[in-house]
Amino acid sequence: MGRWGHADRKHLAAAALCAVWTLFPAALSAAAPANGPALSPAGLTLENAVPLSVPPRPNLRTPPPVKAPPRLVLPQPLEAPPPPALTEGPVQPAPRATARTEPAPRTAPTAAQPQQPTTQAPAAQTPAAPAPGQPPTAPRTDTAALPPPPDAAPPAANLPPSSVLSLVFPVGATNLPDAADAVVDRIVERLRASDTARLQLRSYASGTADTAREARQLALARALALRERLTAFGIRSTRVDVRALGLDDGDGPPDRIDAVFLNE
Question: What would the DSSP string read from start to end of the chain?
């Protein structure tokens, strides 16, 4: 039995069922259900199997229709109207300015005044004709008196006749001495009197041939100190030239600054 196949077992079961039906038909009829097919004692087989009913199709909700996106409509560009044609009109005369007359103010009535006799001005006398045989005389002309001439402008302040102002320093000193205030005032006065005037500071210092370099450095320091004092009074530094000469071969004091005025 173990070696039989599935088909052989079905044939054997069918043969056994036929034999039992032949021998005991009444018993099988009583044991069989009223509304169902006859079942073999072995159970349900492929021959007596009844297919189950197919369940109904579920009622699914109809999906909403898919809306298409709105169609893109590009705006149409508007055409600009053509420019109007310009025509030159007739030239209109300028309106004349009319004088606006104001009404005379009303005055209160006054009592009647006696009329005064009006006198006529004497007529202009015409020159009499010259007698025959006499030369004609020249017409008489009257001239008005001329106004007196205006007062002459006061003379300008007399500037120092010298174009060079000297400032003497102590030996080896770089600071301005006490006498520098008077010299600075005179320099500022002359520079303010002329816008084109320039100043040249020629600075000297004492020393020997071996110390010529130190003398020039000392002279430069003195000239820069004087120019700084002048700028404090409102003089532009561009109007002041500095020349550090150092040793002096002249007859003047060896330690000094000569302020030379140019373009006065």
Answer: -TT--HHHHHHHHHHHHHHHHHH-HHHHHHHS-SSS---BTTB--TTT--PPPPPPPP-PPPPPPPPPPPPP-PPPPPPPPPPPPP---PPPPPPPPPPPPPPPPP----PPPPPPPP-PPPPPPPPPPPPTTSPPPPPP---PPPPPPPPPPPPPPPPPS-SEEEEE--TT--S--TTHHHHHHHHHHHHHH-SS-EEEEEEE----STTHHHHHHHHHHHHHHHHHHHHHTT--GGGEEEEEEES--SSS-SSEEEEEEE--
Contact call for residues 170 and 211 (beta carbons, < 8 A): no
Phi first, then psi: what are they for 257, rounded to 5°? -130, 125
Q: How many Å apart are CA 124 and CA 192, to the nearest integer? A: 64
Contact 202, 164 (CB under 8 A): no
Q: Indicate the pairing of strand 164-168 with strand 198-204.
A: unpaired
Retrieve residue 119's tokens: 């006198």
Rounded to the nearest integer, the mean pLDDT of the chain is 74
Instruction: Give mean pLDDT, residues 190-204.
Output: 92
Residue 56's pLDDT band, with cuts at 50, 70 and 90, is confident
